[in-house]
Structure formats: structure tokens, C-alpha cells
Amino acid sequence: MKLAKLKVAVVGHTNTGKTSLLRTLTRDMTFGEVSNRPATTRHVEGTALLIDGKPLIELYDTPGMEDSIGLLEHLESLRQNRQSEWIKIIRRFLESPAAQTRFEQEAKVLRQVLGSDVAWYVIDARDRVLGKHRDELEILGRSAKPVVPVLNFVASPEAKTARWREHLARVNMHAVVEFDTVVINETSEQHLFEKTRTLLDSFRPTLDAVIQDRIRMRANLIRASADLLADLLIDVASYLAITPSDGQQTKAMEKLRQSVRQREQRCVTALLELHRFRPDDYMAQDLPILDGEWGLDLFNPESLKQFGVKAGGAAAAGGMAGLAVDAMTGGLTLGAAAALGAALGALVSGSRTHGKRLTDRLRGYTELRVNDATMKLLALRQIELIRALLRRGHASQDKIQLNAKAAEADQAWKGWRLPEVLKQARANPDWSRLNEIPLGTGQTSGRLTAMDRLARLLESSFADDPTSQPKPE
Hints:
By secondary structure, the chain is an alpha/beta fold. It folds into 3 domains: 6-199, Rossmann fold, CATH 3.40.50.300; 222-292 and 370-462, no CATH class; 301-368, no CATH class. It contains 17 helices and 11 strands. It has helices at 18-26, 68-78, 86-94, 104-114, 131-141, 161-170, 186-199, 204-237, 249-274, 301-311, 314-328, 334-350, 352-362, 372-391, 403-412, 420-426, 445-458; strands at 6-11, 45-51, 54-61, 118-124, 147-152, 177-178, 241-244, 282-283, 293-294, 365-369, 400-401. The protein has a 6-stranded mixed beta sheet with strand order 2-3-1-4-5-6, sandwiched between helices. Strands 7-10-9 form a 3-stranded antiparallel beta sheet, with helices on both faces. β2 (45-51) and β3 (54-61) form a beta hairpin. The longest helix has 34 residues, at 204-237.
């Protein structure tokens, strides 16, 4: 079924947030100009909501109606015959010289209203109900087009929402929508489309399609954000620096800090781009990376499992683990010493990654990796950033700042344990793109599987409840 294209005129007094509304709906922070200066929009500007690349709703941003009181008086003077329909009076006005001079801005608005299917009348809910508003509503009510009042900035403590609803009811406008253009609220957006649908039954299929597309778009955005975060966490968890044990640890630690911070910044940049924000819309302090974990973490259950598979069974894995632990403590028995060469040969040939790590350890090298506390903090910062981006309207002029969160992050997540999939990542250094010389095959199917598991786990962090945390696996 071919869907009818809906045309919407976005109208209202100056500085009520018409352009801001369109920026938020289209997720386009470059549309129009947002300013506290009056009469910023001087001409009609158009944009659209797309589905599958096709514009289903055309949105037209109009100038502010600056002299609605004078215009209403002028329209009254044109109505010589009280039986004349108001729509004819308005059309006569648009053809008159006054529409090109004194009421030029108002004429632009009315032309767009008459050329559209519906008007969204944007109201700054912080304003008092004044004569200019009453006259604007009166004029729009005479245009023979449905009008949906949109109460903007309702989240402000100065909002007079109840008073506005009472006044709108008095002029027989009951399909009122509450909105706030500096935040994204899927419920408010859906209500806007639903209220419009109640007034335009012929456009019901179009508006239903837009509502469903918004739901899909939100779900896809959350999953894409979770994928970026999962990719970051696996890169950092599996990051491994091998360094001599002769006083080089300080230099290695600084290199680790720099690598992880740069990787976090790449994730931040990608998230901002995904959510269609500018790089300078987010301000954050450097990630306070705590001392790394030193020493060999080779024989955790994941590593042993890999050795067992390569060596041919659980018994072999247990025997190899015993040899290696003996070697690490310098307590080689005669029998162990005799078998060590053969065991190392099997490790190197059967598991290039772990064989090299064990060989390096025996040569006096040690390993450095990011510890759990830093991993928790890294995860929390990015989760909070994603939550902020999911809420942030594209008309917002304030920068996102999460500095206060960083100070309490470790305490806030003190009881949260790293997901098992990240422990698995620690045993697979070849999963990290941060290693200068990859120790294995890199982007393996195992990494992709782990990333998918972690992303699905992280999706639960972006529920409507801001206190939600990743659910355990």
C-alpha cells in the first residue's frame, strides 16, 4: 500500500522552540538556526522524516507571528459580510498589499498553513497566556486546517502547563501534546504523532508507519551503541603489555594509560557520530587509570581450557599447568626439568599465543594489563554517556558533562562484577587491537561471538530506568 505524504506546518510565536522541535524530531542539529534572539527564522524552511529513504512527513519551519493582534484586527476589517467564510477572508488577505508589507511574516505563516495538512502550534509553556497567543489561536482556527498545540519546555520548573491546558480547552483545542525539545522522549514523540492521527484519519497508515519506524530506530540505535561499547571493553580487557622486569614497569604503565585513553576517545567519537552530535558536545576528564595488574595471568580457567584443547585433554592440561606453576616459582624438580623442554615445544606449536607468553615469562619478562577497577570505571563512563546521548535533544545547547560521575564511579559499582565474557577476553590477548604486535589471529570468530554476547548484555543498561545495570550472564 502506498502511503500518503503528510505536510506539517510548524507555527507559533517567536522564540517558542519551533526550530528546536524540528531538530529533535529529525535528529539533525544543523537544521535551521537556534537562538535566543527574536525572529531568528525569517523564511519557511523544510525538512522531512524519512522511512526507507522516502519522505513520509514533510515538516515546514515558519517565521514567528510577530503581530497577531494587528493581523486579527486587519482580518476583521476585511470581513464586510458577516456571512463570509473566514478561509476566504484569509485568502483575500494573502493576495493584498498588506501581505507583502506590514504583515509579511504572518503571511508566510498562513500560506504554509493553507498548503499543509495540519499545523503544529508550538507554545513555550513557560510563558503566561497573553492576548497575542489568543489571537494566534483565533487566526489558526479560521484557517480550516487541524491544529495540534505542542506545549514546549514542559520540563522547566517555570512551565505553566495546567494553565495552558485550561486555556486551550476553552478554545476547543483538546489534542494537546507536552514536549521538551532539549531532550529526546520517545513517549512524547509518539503522542505527537498519535494526536495528529486523531485529527487526520486519512493519514493513519502514514503515521502508524512513522511510529513503528521510530521504535525500530530506537532499538537499532541502542544495539549499535552497545556494539561500540562491547568492542571497546573487549579491546581493553584483552590488552596485554609484555615488558622486561628490570625497572621498565613505569614506562610500560604510562604507555598502557595512553593507549587505553586513546581507545576510549575513539569510542566516544564514534558514539557521538552515531547519535549525530558534534565531537565538542561532550566534555570529560581523562579516565583515571589505576595501577595495572602485573604478573602472569596465563593459567586462569579460560587459558587452561585452551591448553587442554590444544594438548589433547583435561589430564594433559592439568599436567602442563603443574609444570608451568613449578617453573614460575623456580621450583623445578629433576623430572619436571627433563619434561619442560618438550612441554614448551608442545605449547608453542599448539598454541602460538600462550606458548609465546610462557616463553617470555621464563626469559624474565612480565605482563601488564588493565585491572578490574579501571575496567568498571571505563564501562560506567561509557554507559552513562550512551544514556545521556539517548536522552539528549538535538536542539540542546549545553555540553554533556560526566565529570561528577567519574569521582564516584568506582564506589557506585563496587559490588558489580565484570561479566564472564570479559574474563574470557583476558585469556585471549589476540582479541585486542591495542597490542602493537598481534599475538594471534586478531579478529577471530571467538572475538566476534564474545562481542555479541557482551553487547546483548549491555543493552539492558539502556532501559528507561537510569539506575539499571547490566544483568548477569
